[in-house]
Amino acid sequence: MQINLLEMKSLNNIVAICLMLFCCQVSFAQDSLKLSHQEFLNIVKNYHPLAFKYQLQNKIANAEITKARGNFDPVIEGKLGEKVIDGTRYYEQKNIGLGIPTWYGIDITGSYNHIQGEKLNTSETPGGLYQFGVTIPLAKNLLYDKRRAMLDQAKFGLKMTEAEQIVLTNELLLDAENTYWEWVKNYEIYKLQKSAVQINRKRLELVKKTYQYGEIPAIDTVEASSQLQNFELQEREAFLSFVKSTQELQMFLWKDNQELFEISQLIYPSSNLDEHSGYTDYEFLVQEVQARKLENHASLEYYFQKQNILESERRLKWQSFLPKVDFTYNFFNKENYKSDFLPLFDNNFQYGLKLEIPIFLRQARADYEIAKLKLSQNQQDSQLKFREVSTKIETYKNEVNNYFTQIDISTKNLNNYQRLLNAEETRFSNGESSLFLINSRENKLLEAQEKNLELKTKFLKSYNKLKWLNENFMR
Fold this sequence. Notes:
Number of strands: 8
Strand order of the largest sheet: 2-3-4-5-7-8
Strand content: 5-15%
CATH architecture of the largest domain: Up-down Bundle
CATH topology of the largest domain: Outer membrane efflux proteins (OEP)
CATH class of the largest domain: Mainly Alpha
């Protein structure tokens, strides 16, 4: 069947073929694994080792509180012993005691001691002896001591750790999400280049046939071949970028046993840049961030709780300026004797008063000065962090607004390039243009498409920065 010249002229109308570049989505690897945006984030949240590690940090901080409470645990002690030399029983002793530390630095003790033998110390009381005693700090450690400081600091440390883990976890999710959308962008660029290659292959076949019928010069076949080769090179480069971004994405893919998910075949995104909700709700996000109080941001909460820890340390160091004056009183009662409690300093008692006063207080002064300097450092760090967070908020707000405007301009520019290409194709079909001009228009359109994808990716990255910064606020 012969093809006449009129039919060949109609075949020269490449409009329908070029539209395939923009309207036809190429399907890759139908049996391959598809990964959506939400599925990817769920994997990172539940299985990534860093997310798991951050959860463990909170458990460690809780364990530190339990450890600090252990300083207030009652202690039971017992002792059993005897001494015999050359048949002489020097002593045989049985003792059981209970010590109860209290919040205000007062220690309460109680014990039962039974001792007998032929050669006891003169200070020993033969037989069974009950004892009840109390030790009270009268200066140092009365208002604050190491036990209370450790518990306070452990509680503040838990809040500080929780704030830190919120920031670190959200930074991990931000990094993961931006990596995902970079991966999606590279995939969509690859699809564009692959579509361009397919279209230009068909165009080259058409140009060759048109040349065979004498309608165009031979140089047009060289032009079409050169354009195809250029797109083939760009396709290979786009595929390489997609593979590299897939490897970067793999760093966030883990199994439930914290083993890296090995990719045996390429995976492809089931989400695309155009379907993200950020294009419609970014203004609401900006308004929500603006309504937040910066003092409630987790990164600032970290410094606030650190300030509490350092203040606790300062209070503890201040105790070192006070003399250590401990008063101890013990009440005794012999076994099978009637109890006689009052008056306390009349009979069956023991008391002691212990006094320690460092002469120069050099260590106390140095420790207290260091504690104050650390407080000052943390205050400065807190002010810098406050400034940093407020600056980031303003920067991200400006970025999302600016990129959204750029996307709008880029989309209009893209439509203009499309119209120019369509017009050039119409002129070419009427014999008023050349394949060189069509290729030039097509290259400009493809560059505009890639630029549009780049802007959308930049917008989503800035949107994610603002979104996860907003997630850092303590609720």
